[in-house]
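Deliverable D5.2: sample structural annotation.
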Amino acid sequence: MHVSLNDFWSKPRRGVDDDRSRMEIIQERVGSKVPVIGVGSLYSAEDVMKAFETGVPLLALGRELIMDPDFVEKVETGRENEIETKIDTGAQARLVVPDPLWQAIVNTPGWFPGVQ
């Protein structure tokens, strides 16, 4: 089950009296039946490791890989401190992002860190 949230750590809005994140609750309720893939604002290697500690077995990086296509390579080579955690709004060509997606990124404040 792919659970795409804006923020992996977001809390339930209603219907659950629990201090854990929605991802943790979903993992507890369905994780023994289907694999769970968690997504949402995991911008650093530390964020990813913390998310894995919740027991969610699979994580996906979307915005993170658009902002820094070398994210995984930087982690593998011990250069976590070089991971770009905000979109460079002048880097469309370098990031190889198609025009329609780029327009959505730069015209949707709050979707990507760095876009005001």
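Annotation notes: Strands lie at 2-4, 37-39, 58-60. The chain has a mean pLDDT of 93.
The annotation will be released with the project's public dataset once the embargo ends.
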